[in-house]
């Protein structure tokens, strides 16, 4: 009997979703993120640990772009990954390296992690963080009309959730508060995860997977959006983004899909590079 699609065993699903096992040196990638991010924070001298919610985990870091000092800057709001259970905002500061030379502020969200909180609570925190940034944009030197959202892996799931949010009805924001969206290697369908090695810390119910999967809860409208995945990622990770983007496009939404010659752990180098393909996509959303 199939557990999900063509997969009949937990081992088969683990082979697809244990993304750390797809590279021989995951620890080297993790150490590199930390070192690069520390250097980024030292260079950009941003405003760290801005509180957007009641708990200690609900903060974000604001890393300003380099500018001549005139006017508000466009911004990239970034949601990090880590399978909802690992890393924090400080690990991912380095993505601002691609934005800063172009005068774009990067806001890296922090949030509470599983198993202490549920995926539903994490999604609520993503929404609260973005709403706080949007409402207080001038305080951070940000032009609220020019904010692009991006996220990686579990953070890509967060972008799918942000796109499907009723911003006007639930938050009093403009119905379309984004200039563009960039989900990278996102987990858009949670249904296979209940049968996988991640279930012990996510504790998903079937009802959770139906309510929280962007694949099953498409937005009614989106800004220009690009779903991206690496060719070095597993077939399931590639399918997750490809199927979500295809469903959105089939619903008439301006969502495109692209692959890069990257793996799951170096794909953000194209966002941290001022000339990288993902940086160019963000700048395109901003009309640059």
Written overview of the protein:
The chain has 288 residues and is of the alpha/beta class. The protein has a single domain (10-285), classed as Alpha/Beta hydrolase fold, catalytic domain (Rossmann fold). Helices cover 36% and strands 17% of the residues. The protein has 11 helices and 8 strands. The protein has helices at residues 10-17, 26-44, 96-99, 119-135, 154-163, 167-171, 199-202, 206-212, 235-250, 269-272, 277-285, and strands at residues 47-51, 59-63, 73-79, 105-109, 142-152, 180-184, 225-230, 255-260. Strands 1-2-4-3-5-6-7-8 form an 8-stranded mixed β-sheet, sandwiched between helices. Strand 1 (47-51) and strand 2 form a beta hairpin. The protein starts with 9 loop residues before the first helix and ends with a helix.
List the topology elements.
Elements: H1 10-17, H2 26-44, E1 47-51, E2 59-63, E3 73-79, H3 96-99, E4 105-109, H4 119-135, E5 142-152, H5 154-163, H6 167-171, E6 180-184, H7 199-202, H8 206-212, E7 225-230, H9 235-250, E8 255-260, H10 269-272, H11 277-285
Parallel strand pairs: 3-4, 3-5, 5-6, 6-7, 7-8
Antiparallel strand pairs: 1-2, 2-4
Figure out the total of helices: 11
Share of helical residues? 25-40%
Instruction: Supply the CATH superfamily name.
Output: Alpha/Beta hydrolase fold, catalytic domain
- Indicate the proportion of strand residues: 15-25%
Shape: globular
- Please give the radius of gyration in angstroms: 18 Å
Structural class: alpha/beta
Low-confidence stretches: none
Number of strands: 8
The structural domain count equals: 1
CATH class: Alpha Beta
Quote the CATH topology. Answer: Rossmann fold
Main β-sheet description: 8 strands, mixed
């Amino acid at each position: 009997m199939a557990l999900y699609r063509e997969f009949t065993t937990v081992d088969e699903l683990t082979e697809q979703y244990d993304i750390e096992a797809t590279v021989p040196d995951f620890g080297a990638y993790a150490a590199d993120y930390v070192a690069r991010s520390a250097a980024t924070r030292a260079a950009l001298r941003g405003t760290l640990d801005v509180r957007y919610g009641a708990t200690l985990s609900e903060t974000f870091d604001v890393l300003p772009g380099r500018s001549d000092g005139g006017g508000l800057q466009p911004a990239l709001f970034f949601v990090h990954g880590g399978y909802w259970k690992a890393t924090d905002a400080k690990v991912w500061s380095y993505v601002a390296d691609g934005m800063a030379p172009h005068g774009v502020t990067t806001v890296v969200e922090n949030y509470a992690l599983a198993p202490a909180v549920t995926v539903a609570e994490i999604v609520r925190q993503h929404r609260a963080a973005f709403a706080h940034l949007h409402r207080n944009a001038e305080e951070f030197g940000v032009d609220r009309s020019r904010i692009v959202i991006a996220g990686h892996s579990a953070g890509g799931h967060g972008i799918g959730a942000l796109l499907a949010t009723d911003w006007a009805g639930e938050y009093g924001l403009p119905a379309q508060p984004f200039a563009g969206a960039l989900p990278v290697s996102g987990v858009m369908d949670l249904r296979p995860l209940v049968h996988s090695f991640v279930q012990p810390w996510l504790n998903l119910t079937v009802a959770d997977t139906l309510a929280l999967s962007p694949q099953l809860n498409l937005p009614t409208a989106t800004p220009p959006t690009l779903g991206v995945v690496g060719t070095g990622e597993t077939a399931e990770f590639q399918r997750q983004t490809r199927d979500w983007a295809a469903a959105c496009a089939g619903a008439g939404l301006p969502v495109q899909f692209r692959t890069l010659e990257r793996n799951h752990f170096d794909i953000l180098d194209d966002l941290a590079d001022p000339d990288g393909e993902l940086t160019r996509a963000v700048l395109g959303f901003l009309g640059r």
